[in-house]
Amino acid sequence: MQKSNNNYDVSTMGVETDAQGRHVLDLYKTHSGLTHAFVECWKAETVHRSPLEGLILEPTAGDLAITNALQQWTGSRARFLTNDVNQDMPTDLHFDATDQAFWDRESVRLADWVITNPPFGAAPLIVPKAYAAARKGVAMLLRLSWLEPCQDRRDFLIDHPPNYLYIFNPRPKFRLSKTGKPATDNVTVSWFIWDKAAQHVGTIHRSLTDWQKWGAT
Predict the structure, then answer these.
(1) Are 86 and 25 in contact (CB under 8 A)?
(2) Bigger pLDDT: 142 or 215?
(3) CA angle at residue 146 from 79 to 165, to 5 degrees?
(4) Are 34 and 172 in contact (CB under 8 A)?
(5) Is the model's pLDDT at 49 over the cut of 80?
(6) Which helix (H) or strand (E) element contains residue 168?
(7) Which of 75-79, 120-124, 162-166, 173-177 comes out lowest in average pLDDT?
(8) What is the 3-state secondary structure of 9-34?
(9) What gap in Å lies between CA 152 and CA 81, rounded to an integer?
(10) What's 23-213's CATH class?
(11) What is the pLDDT of residues 1-34, one digit of tens each?
(12) How far apart are CA 93 and CA 150, in angstroms?
């Protein structure tokens, strides 16, 4: 992969696109470096934080890229439950994560952490449900523009501002253009982290500038 114009290409792994160039079912694969950078930064936090252990739920797991990366670090300290609405994905469950019925399932209610890269358009429906369900914390890989207090998430962000933002540069590219080439993203992504054990006030910002050294390139 090549780096250019402050963008780092993670979109060249073949994915199916529709006529508008959008990935089918909003499947945007997550480079393992994004997950490893999250784990390394979380390990280094000096303020009180919840450990990444117990049951980790990935509700929009796709091809398990995030879960596989997390497993490399957590080992036996964590167990995983994966879900994706796409029946073709190798997940434990196949339900719609925007549906409250999914979050009411007994196995889902046992989750200590909810960690995923949700479809951006569905995030306002998924993130609040994940926050309500998780016992310890939530980590969502979202465009940084998700901080904008739009009507579909304004109340949630006012009541539950993230405790941490892990902001990536160079920007990863997740999507392909109509011609099949990596398309430039207008805004970077960040891990939005809600830690229910956090004792600090406000949001701690971290800049992750060397994330691409982890994982496959």
Answers:
(1) yes
(2) 142
(3) 60
(4) yes
(5) yes
(6) strand 164-168
(7) 173-177
(8) ECCCCCCCECCCCCEHHHCCCCCHHH
(9) 27
(10) alpha beta
(11) 223 334 444 433 334 444 444 344 455 688 899 9
(12) 31
> What pTM does this model have?
0.86
Quickly tell me which residue has 């879900």 as its tokens: 83
Spatial separation of the C-alpha atoms in residues 1 and 11, rounded to whole Å: 9
Q: Where are the alpha helices (DSSP H) in 14-114?
A: 32-44, 65-74, 100-103
Average pLDDT, the chain: 86
61: left (phi over 0), alpha (psi -120 to 50) or beta: alpha
Which amino acid belongs to residue 112?
A: D
- The residues, ordered by sequence, that sit 6+ positions from 156 with a Cβ below 8 Å of its Cβ are 124, 127, 128, 131
- Three-state SS at 100: helix
CB proximity list for 206: less than 8 A, separation 6 or greater: 41, 164, 165, 166, 167
% of the chain at pLDDT higher than 90: 70
Quick one: tokens of 2? 């090549």
Amino acid in the structure at residue 97: A
- For residues 19, 8, 152 and 35, what is the CA-based torsion angle, rounded to 10 degrees? 120
Residue 29's CB: how many other CB atoms inside 10 A?
Answer: 18
Q: What is the pLDDT of residues 79-119, one digit of tens each?
A: 999 999 999 999 999 999 999 999 999 999 999 999 999 99
Q: Map out the domains of the chain as residue ranges.
A: 23-213
